[in-house]
Amino acid sequence: MDVLPYILVTAVTVGAMYSLATLGLSLVWGAMGMLNMAHGTMLTLGGYAAYSAVTTLGLPWYFGFVAAILLGALVGAILYYGLVRFMLRNPAFETNIIIATVGIAIALENLVLKIYGGQPLGQPVSLHGTLRLGVVPVQTQNILIVVMSVTIMVLVAWTLKTSRVGRAIRATAQNREAAQLMGVPIRKVYLKVLAISGALAGVSGVLLSSLTQLSPPLGNDPMLKAFIMCVVAGLGNLPGSVLAAFVLALVEACTQFYLGARWGFPVLLILVILALIWRPYGVFGRTQVTRL
Amino acid sequence: MSGETLLAVSDLASGYKGRDVLHGISFEVPEGSLITLIGPNGHGKSTLLRSISGLLRPRAGGIRLGERAIAGLPAEAIAALGVIQVPQGDMLFADMTVHENLTMGAYLERDRSVIRRRLDEVHAILPRLKERGRQLASTLSGGERRMVGIGRGLMAGGKLLMLDEPSLGLAPIVIDRVYEVIADLKASGRTILLVEENPMRAEDLSERVHLLDNGYIVWSGAGRELSERSELIETYLGG
Fold this sequence. Notes:
The complex is a heterodimer of chains A (292) and B (239). With 292 residues, chain A is mainly alpha-helical. Chain A has helices spanning 4-32, 39-56, 62-87, 93-116, 140-162, 164-174, 176-181, 186-211, 220-233, 238-258, 264-278, and strands at residues 130-133, 136-139. The radius of gyration of chain A is 19 Å and the shape is globular. Chain B has 239 residues and is of the alpha/beta class. Chain B is built from ten helices and ten strands. The chains are: A mainly alpha (292), B alpha/beta (239).
């Protein structure tokens, strides 16, 4: 049996999920210089929000995504109003916010544990059945994941490129002070970026848990992978991190098939180390120059 | 040709981390005039512009735009009132094209026909920017970048244009071109607050020059007076 088509299907599905998780993390880093360590937990919250909407409230499955998006955006907004707003003016913001969001992540993960318990739950937002693409049978859920991820990424790219808020986000990312001097209200931009990133995390959480299971540490592994992909691509580089997500997912899938599942992550890390030795600022990154 | 006072700075104190860089700064910018602040590097010129534009919150003193007190407002609110700073070192949006940089300048303007008209005006003053419209800002030469910075400031359609060292780091022939543009802007009636380290280029254009030393205004006078007072230049600007 030729395994290559199966590897490709896995790689494309996993790559699509990684890139969605990476997109949210990279957006926040690029626009605000904020490494949001709670991004993974926002994924988890999205997964559970969908679970509650469908199982507890009895809503149709697609409302699971709506619930995840809304809760993700809300948590992003709360993060801004409750935390980021007060820390922004501090010159050590970039370091302080990492520590603060690690704390938030731990607190939120334990909140999920308290509410839902530690036992794994099945994600009800999931399509059943298989489709045949040529000779390869592909699960409908995998197709949903790829279609949704690609649609969302195109939507985000289009918003960033053409809309007023997108231009404001890009301008803030490229030069915060210049953006302010052009009248861009950067605090509102930060709020929107965190809300968008939260919504993206929410959707990723639903998609991810539909392939595995819901559990409080659900977001930790994708958070780690998303961080790795952001670093490989050059922090804040959106197209680069999406490409890195697909390439690394392919490498991971190949390694797992040919060398065994336990080699997936080590090989990924070795590649990352080599990539960073080759280009310390990320494969698509630029040398940063700071005026002292 | 100078009209009513557009910007009035009174007894301003400002600085970083609780240490004042500027002390008791007072001056006015009448409508339609070009006022220049000169002084050696590191003596508070940029700090003054940053305090006016709101990037830095002044510690004490007043800044009025017309009748309105603007000291301490956020930068975006001050920009919306029409005070536009063209920052030192251009600060362009490097990954945007020249055209996108210019339209970012008009971020606060929602009327597309107004934006198009301003773009035509900027292209008329700086025709090179039209040719370079689709080029990424990061690929431009130093002189072109400076022009984009000025063009982006003009796109805002503000009341007061503040230029922070527009000659910095440019070849003399390019500086000539930058000052031709500044002279054109003045001739078209725009109100300009100019900051320079070197008084030579600005003094003929300026209605009034203020000499900034160690955070104090140590001398104020007409532009031409400065070149007649060589001892001032020797003392403060090292001849």
